[in-house]
Amino acid sequence: MTDQFAYDADLAAADLSLAGTPRVAAGAIHAPRRIFLTGATGFLGVAVLAGLLARTGAKVLCLVRGADADEARVRLKQAFRAATGRRFPADRVEVVCGDLGLPRLGLTQTDADRIARETDLAVHCGAEVNWSRSYAELRAANVLSVLEIARLCSDIRPKPLVFVSTLAVCYAHDAPGIVNEDADMSRHLAGMPLAYARAKCVAEHILGAFGRAGLPVMIVRSGLIVGDSRSGRSNREDIVSRLLCSAAWTGIAPDVDWQVDACPVDFVAGVLVELARRPGPGMQTLHVNHPAPRHWREVVAWLNVAGYRSSLVPYDRWLDHVRRATWATDASLRPLQPFFLARPRILGGRTLPELYFEANRERIDATRSRALLAQRGLRVPTIDGAYLARCVGALAAAGHFPALPCSPARRPLAAAEATVAALLCEHFCERGLKLIGIQRRVVEGGILSELLGWRLGQDAGVAKFEVAFRRRRGAPDETLHLILKRKPGDELVLAIGEALAGTCGTTLGKLFRDGAYGLGLLQAHKREPLLYRIDEPGLRTHMPRLYGSMRESKGGLFALAIECLDSAAFPTWAEAGRPWPGETIRTVVETAAQIHSVFLAQTHLLKQKLWHRAAHCPRKCFRCGAVSRTTPRNFSVTGGASRACRCSVAQQKPLGSGEACLPRCRVRWFTTTSTPAIWRSGRTLRRPGRAPSTGSSPPFACRSTISPSCCASSCPRRRSAPPSWSILSCSARGWSCTRALRWSASSGTRGLRCP
Question: Do 589 and 679 belong to one domain?
């Protein structure tokens, strides 16, 4: 491996001078009427071909590999039909037989002269994309072919050249911390451990020589290219698809700090088509990456939410799995073993993927490129749950992926306009309030909000709106910037939480489900509005204004509208990567302390709210493991009645003197027998006999020491039980007492009270 790497490094360094001093023919640049395209049967190339046909009137001459022209034409037709589902436009597409890996592209002299004479622009998408092969093996298709195409573009008359490179050229162990479009990465060629990146870097250097000689050259350094944003059509052979397939089939995925910097193939193809339509002068380099990449752990979390069971495991343990992978156990990762397991000497014993982890990788500066693309109306599609579902669905349809276990159906949902109008009418106490206009703006919500929205099949989560309205007829127009949160109930929150916990193992997922009632995650739809309504001056200074909350009649979501504190109000030092001034840090800390002090002072009140732990503690039989998670109607909004397990009903044992003193107890009605019972670690004890009639008062002794967490929300002194059953707990820390629990009648209903 060391000898091969040294040989490749020397060969790549020698290839930097392949272009020599190129000569570019003089002449005017024509509008593209005939375009030369390579890689037209590939994942990206066929998308570029479809884009050129849709957005230009030019004819396209495609270089396609085949034994003869007829075989090459058949291959192109099949690829086009599979990618687009449309009829192959033979009147606008011509095929020339060739091969990037052969000298002079495998073209006859007649075909080469025809390309140089008749075409007006070239788009070079073709390449051998392989992260495991050596530079020497990739040299013909990825380096020498670029030299031949540049010569064709320089012959007879100049023809602009659009070349697809990779952002992998920006990653070298000796590269600068931030790499922009002007960086000459050939200076760091020896520090690039990935042979594919080294080949692309040499190709860029060759094109730089032609660009300086006068040939218009546009280099597009793209990140990972993933599935189509509309259809989900994906490349089974790319590294992201292989990792996803492996995680779904084997149930494990690497726990790594990796931002999946990937763009949908239709966006990258759109960039190339736009550059072909309006090529720029001189030499240009563009960085095409995603402004909001998803983290690998988020992708695995989505897999779990979608119903696949895949746990994150330590990277070293996952590498052991890759090392043992065979075509039978993990066919997805078997071809990538050399890439994942190689440890080049220049990386100090680290593997190649570790070069791209957040702690090690360079930062890509794409500011200028994004501004140019924005001017041309190109925006990167969002990578979200719906997009991942489309990509996984396409892979599953092709047989590469297990069928999607959870495919949420779209359900009717109240329009955002109706919800916003209703909340503002209530807030301003103006029934005649009328919306003039409402415009949605992009907002980056949390992964939990996004996954909830996908699982619901609805437009749930967080959205930012600019609302123009008039309070009444004749009143002036007003504008508000607000954030609308739309949340589901607790059951879906539990399902999502269990799936997210499952990314760390199925055991943790089950523990989350059993203990979720004590984690403070539930009843968020009731907790958040009440927190915003806390009337404390110190808190109101720092919190956004609440415009109202409601439950939508259509869709059943809980909606909350708050004031939008636009990020534009923050100074430049608040941006990522910039140091904060010392005075600013002190101000932030003091503000946070002030906010927390308000909540600390509200502790005794917050414990009384409906979301407090005692009101939602699960009832579990420690003998058979049965758990009842339904909460009493008078303690929560979910409603429902609790059921006894068979174990607890069958076990009937009189309350003896030694069992009268219980460390922690809950007294409740079993709906099956309507008799009071005490649950105690490991055993369920119940008094024999029928339940007393209303108004009778047989004593039921209970000596207990209960933690204060049970007292605030569920003490029977505060609340009476439902007609058929109750959960009772009394007390304060350290208080041991003997009390009689008696039956009493209250407003015609039966309940238990502490006398």
Answer: no
Residue entry with tokens 């002794």:
701
Q: How far apart are CA 503 and CA 305, in angstroms?
A: 9
Name the one residue in this structure whose structure tokens are 């049965």.
Answer: 626
Position 621 pLDDT exceeds 50: no
pTM: 0.72
Is residue 479, in this structure, part of any structural domain at all?
yes
Domain count, the chain: 4
**Distance between CA atoms of 504 and 376, rounded to whole angstroms?**
43
Highest mean pLDDT among 206-210, 292-296, 511-515, 525-529: 206-210
Decide if 724 contacts 674 (C-beta within 8 A): yes
For residue 522, pLDDT beyond 90: no
CA-CA distances (angstroms) from residue 197 to 3, 136, 184, 203, 505?
Answer: 19, 13, 13, 10, 36
Q: What is the CA radius of gyration of the chain?
A: 33
Beta bridge partners of 655: none
Q: Which residues pair with 466 in a beta bridge?
A: 439, 481
- What is d(CA 235, CA 230) in angstroms, rounded to the nearest whole number? 14
- Strands of 661-662's sheet, edge to edge? 661-662, 701-704, 737-740
Give the domain extent around 589.
573-598
Residue 540 tokens read as: 């109101």
The two three-digit tokens of residue 657, written as one number: 């003197």
Phi-psi region of 527 (alpha: psi -120 to 50; beta: other; left: phi over 0): alpha
Q: Is residue 410 part of a domain?
A: no
Average pLDDT over the chain reads 77
> CA 372 from chain center: how many Å?
26
Q: Are the beta carbons of 314 and 507 closer than 8 angstroms?
A: no
